[in-house]
Amino acid sequence: MPMIEFKNVSYVYANTSEEAVRNISLTVHAGELKVVTGASGCGKTTLMRLANGLCPQIYGGKVIGSVNVAGCDVSATPVAELAEHVGTLFQDPEEQFFALNVGDEIAFALRSRGVAPETIEERVLAAADRLGITDLLKQDIHELSEGQKQKVGLASILALGPRVLIFDEPSANLDPEATESLAVTMGELKKEGAAILVVDHRLYWLKDVADEVIVMSKGRIEASGSWEMLRNDALRARWGLRRADVPDPRETLSPIDVAFGKTVPEAEESQSVFSANRMSFAYTPEKPVFTDASFAVPAGVTALIGSNGTGKTTLARILTGLNKAEGSFAVCGSAVGEGGLMPHSGLVLQNADHQLQMRTVREEVICAMEAGIAALNARKGFWQRFARVKLSESQIRRADEILKSLNLTHLAGRHPQSLSGGEKQRVVIACALVKNPAILILDEPTSGLDGANMACIAKLLKDEAARGRAVFLITHDLELLGICDRALRMRDLQPQNPIADAHA
């Protein structure tokens, strides 16, 4: 008997008339792993929600056909009961956190089920050890990197021992080494008899564990087959898929030189878009992140490279002025004054929800442009910061052009929170670009993007770099790293705390 079985399934969300998925039939047996992929909006997430019972039990709507998981009818079996058999790791692991520290989070569901304390401790340690996070068990969950949070979410699921596992973009926030380790873990779970359904845009990392690839478009299954199918360039182009094989470009990128205890030479600083002199930063005195580091970055795309938790996001926050570091900074050869780096920078955070607050996508982009102009006005004098910003027709046209370049025009009237993860990501990128910043920082900008939209982002970043911007790219996406001109490695910024990982 299949552990996951869809029979002629169609589904319509509540308060809509269009089918989100149409006539879906598929099975996943114990010891199998199947990958569902396709362009953004193709129905992958709905398929996942049908498999774990969120549709229709939480989202409402109507199901035609039948979905059975571990012998349970998902429409008739309460979600709490289904959770005994099905574990789901969502794309944003924070959505499923309840506790404040790592150990308590992994133990939470076990405690809620009344498992004996000695058994809980044993399972928590086993799950943490399996994912290499034993040293984080007492750590505050909110101090973790996004990749570390994802490992905690998976550990909390594995501690429960479900027979069916569903993964939503599980590689999105993991570095390549952690991604490879996750693939090994999935292979082990397969051998232990788990039925695994993976919904993902990134594909290369699953080639040794996937039993079947399922391609969706507009709610339908359009193609299915072995991994070899993904090596067909025409098929990938037709359905907007990522590559099946990806080389690792990290060690081939030219390094940014970093010096300690001295400033960047004046000639080098004058030719750079951004320079930092004797930069130091620490969240707590006993744990410095950067100490007395100096470097200069020219126009182009610069990758910030390092393992999860090594300071990439911290550096991005310094570059955009959200964290205040010691030292001095210059933009295009001019020292940064009291206004700090924020007026010069555009930031795209890893979690797009943290940057979206307006009623429509177009309002979001227009508001970002107004905020950018207001920040520049504030540098001119005290009273200018209170002047109301009125955009010109050419500025509004520029905002609309950016929406078009990111394939967002048809979503301009939508509420940002109604969009998919990949669509939200593109909206936040548009908001950063309309500020016309000298420094553009992107933290995992392709974590939820399909192949076609990733190519769109890659071209856009190269175009912006060609306009003279310093584009800082934080990404574990090996496909996107291929467009970078150089790399600033976290290990080079931390001489007193060398990172053992040769690829960090």
Automatic annotation (TrEMBL):
What is the name of this protein?
Answer: ATP-binding cassette domain-containing protein
> Keywords of this protein's UniProt record, alphabetized?
ATP-binding, Cell membrane, Membrane, Nucleotide-binding, Repeat, Translocase, Transport
Protein's cellular compartments: Cell membrane
Q: Which GO terms describe its cellular component?
A: ATP-binding cassette (ABC) transporter complex
Instruction: Tell me where the signal peptide lies.
Output: none
Q: Which GO-annotated molecular functions does the record name?
A: ATP binding; ATP hydrolysis activity; ATPase-coupled transmembrane transporter activity
**Lineage summary:** Bacteria, Pseudomonadati, Pseudomonadota, Betaproteobacteria, Burkholderiales
Entry's family note: Belongs to the ABC transporter superfamily.
Q: What is its main location?
A: membrane
**Domain ABC transporter, chain residue ranges per copy:** 4-243, 274-504
| Function as written in the Swiss-Prot or TrEMBL entry | Probably part of an ABC transporter complex. Responsible for energy coupling to the transport system.
InterPro entries on file: AAA+_ATPase, ABC_transporter-like_ATP-bd, ABC_transporter-like_CS, ABC_transpr_CbiO/EcfA_su, ECF_ABC_transporter_ATP-bd, P-loop_NTPase
Q: How does it sit in the membrane?
A: Peripheral membrane protein
